[in-house]
Amino acid sequence: MVMTVQERTPRRFTSDEYLTLERSAESKSEWIDGEIFAMGGGTPDHSTIKTNIAGELHRQLKGTGCRVYDSDMKVRVVSRRAAMRGLFTYPDVTVVCGEPQFHDTYGDILVNPKVLFEVLSPSTNDYDRGQKRLRYQAIPSLSDYCIVAQSGPRVEHWLRSPDGTWAVTPVSGLGGSLVLASIDCGLPLSDIYDRIQW
């Protein structure tokens, strides 16, 4: 069967169309440059790792000007290239410092995250480490992006320098610790991977 150009071209949605659909949907989806992609469910290990991260950060940030959100909070990344480009997504863990700023009056889409975490899965590995990382790093408020492996105790910590450039520091092994100086937190990998067995 020969596909026509029309059949190969995905339906494109404006960000407003996406948000109208998403806010009434029973499942989550991402909006990437006008296309909508359904998000699959996570594994028990994926859920445990992100819960460990969020719980430890919540404990350390209690009483400070920072707060932690789980993967139910959307984040918006604006593209300056065109109106139909950009990203609405659900990071696994988000930290905001100061007053949260939202996309609109619904208050369900953050635009000023300070730290973002993504826990890798086989289907998202390349995207989270590549295109999504580059998009996240365009967020002016973001200081840290942490990519957390499921297959072993490894974290890639991307940190924004004062001059605006990004550098990565890998942390590995259960004896290692992820240091987030921007929010004065330290996460031992043994805590991130608590109850995970390989």
Structural class: alpha+beta
Q: Could you give a short account of the major beta sheet?
A: 6 strands, mixed
- Main-sheet strand order equals 3-6-8-9-10-11
What is the number of helical segments per DSSP (H or I, 4+ residues)? 6
Mean pLDDT score: 92
Rounded to an integer, what's the Rg over CA atoms? Answer: 17 Å
What level of helicity do the residues show? 10-25%
C-alpha termini separation: 44 Å
Task: Estimate the global geometry from the Cα principal axes.
Answer: globular
Could you name the ranges where pLDDT drops below 50 across 5 or more consecutive residues? 1-8
Beta content comes to 25-35%
List the secondary-structure elements in sequence, H or E.
HHEEHEEEEEEHHEEEEEH
Oligomer: single chain
Number of strands: 13
Structure at a glance:
The chain is built from six helices and 13 strands. By secondary structure, it is α+β, with helices and mostly antiparallel strands.
Could you describe the 3D structure shown?
The protein is α+β, with helices and mostly antiparallel strands and 198 residues long. The protein has 6 helices and 13 strands. The protein has helices at residues 5-8, 15-22, 44-61, 125-129, 131-136, 189-192, and strands spanning 29-32, 35-38, 66-69, 74-78, 86-89, 93-97, 109-110, 115-119, 144-148, 154-160, 166-172, 177-180, 185-188. The chain has a 6-stranded mixed β-sheet, covered by helices on one side. A 5-stranded mixed β-sheet has the order 2-1-5-4-7, covered by helices on one side. Residues 1-8 have low confidence and may be disordered.
